[in-house]
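quick one, 131 residues, struct below
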Amino acid sequence: MAKKADYLREVLAWPDAPSGVLVVAERAELAARRADLEATFTLVTARSFARPAVTAECAARFLEIGGYLIVSEPPEDLGASRWPPEGLAQLGLKALGRRRHGAAFQVLVKESATDPTYPRPIGIPGKRPLF
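---
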């Protein structure tokens, strides 16, 4: 984790890199509970993180209401069952649909506050996914 975070920090130091980016090298389940990170971001991205249920659960508390979660998706469309509305609603999220711009992405928006029980403790989201 530290090696990837160091690489991202190095890239963000390049002259034309975007500003206002924060790199956090922590387990998502822990970082999402930090008061300085909760409901702070308008955009969270995830690539090769975990199954949809785990990714959504770990990302939801980082987003402010109206913020977006953009998740890389497999090239083939596996259907809406990957992002079921009832499962996402538990986290305050709604899927806006799959987009393709070369690669495929799922776009989600945070519509309401995430219950403070999420994300669950380390490892639980993966062992007992919400959907």
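The helical segments are 2-12, 28-31, 52-59, 85-89, 124-127.
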